[in-house]
Amino acid sequence: MPDVRTHEPDDHDNAYAGLLVNDAHWAFGTDFEDPLAGVDTTVPDGVDPATLATYCLMLGDDALVLSQRLAEWCSNAPDLEEDIALSNIALDLLGQARLLLARAAAADGSQVPTLPDSSPVPDEDRLAFFRDAPQFRNVRLAEVPGGDFAQTVVRILLFSSWRLALLDRLNQSRDAVLAAVAAKAVKELTYHRDFAGRWFLTLARGTDESRRRLVAGLDALWPFWTELFETHDVERAAARSGVGVDPADVAADVEAVLDQVLAASGVERPAQPPHAADHGRDGRTGRDGEHTEALTALLAEMQVVARAHPGGQW
Amino acid sequence: MSALLDRDRMLARAREAASAVVDPELPMLTLADLGVLRDVTVDDDGAVVAAITPTYSGCPAMAAMRDDLVRELRAAGFADARVRVVLEPAWTTDWITPAGRAALAAAGISPPGPAPQRSGPVLLRLTPARRAVRCPLCGSDDVTVGSEFGSTACKALYRCRACLEPFEHVKEI
Questions:
Q1: Which residues of B touch A37 (CB under 8 A)?
Q2: Interface touch B85/A35, C-beta < 8 Å
Q3: Region (Disordered) spans which residues (chain A) (predicted)?
């Protein structure tokens, strides 16, 4: 067993002592690691590779964009515990995104942005960092600007309730990779939803101010709620071929969970119609690449370093 | 010596080398104790493939685990050492061995209880998780959860009301 000692036990005088002892544990190497190394990524019989890839991009982009939004809380949350909680949730979503984007690339390489031949950037990073907003397929609930902590709690509750229901069914996907990614993600989304549900209850029953902020957060995000259950052609095709789930099929289950939280909290459903978010031309949504301007700014920040160094190794 | 016996010995040596690699974030645990190392195989040419499964989707330790495995296998004489990922079945804390649980407790980290089992939909829990957790420092069961999230994805923060010390608990998943 390697020596995992990190400092001399008796050396209390030197703050730098031990920093370079056995640091191989933290040497992440000089190349990229394939998150699907050795995994059979053959597309199942009768499934259109482009459909499977686009469907994985949709679920991957949802996780990637909300992960980036939640990461904005790092060092800004109301207290240390919540700072760590939000960062943990962001990290789980980033991991889900990475696997899903890697699966998309393995299913249909033609959707991966082209970089110079010498670039070592792996496919999932090309998809994350070298696509522009109109190529992102995420729902708009994931991208709208952050708001305060109460609004963040509402967003995680809405998002994780929906995503948990979707991925729990995806467990049965004919695509073994997608099924495995979903099965693991369900465990994570379970405690994301519990975290948000408990905070929703706490803020609703806290002070007048916490309740006011919570209700305002729900009102602000409510226009993006029904988009989650609109079936895009790609989702319909993926569901028909047995690899995807039609989001309309989980609506009743997800609404029941939301009602459970609202009832426990004594908060009414917002009065405004839930489909107030403007759809784009011909009813286009986030799934079509129709986004709010907030996504462009989010991507600019997320992508700037990778785009400045398309041949970079990290 | 028969080729078969030779290969058995190589496999034993490869397994021994791979099993000794420790988790980068919980260095008191080997990857075998953590249940992350799923398989080690040696082919006719002496190439070794170690199979590992991620604990959490976003666990940043996976890259370090892969590098550590390759390095230790090379040090054990296997020039061609590779790591493959196994996604299914998903990792569960139930795979942490009794030796691993003892090592966690000895290091002041409360080991996980049995992972939750379910049939049917995932139920929403609006009250804090109730676990039979004991303080790994003084053994008291008078403990309170500070946060379901900790320094790594796999741990929750607790505090002991008897000895007043904070400690970490590996969450059941």
A1: 82-85
A2: yes
A3: 267-290
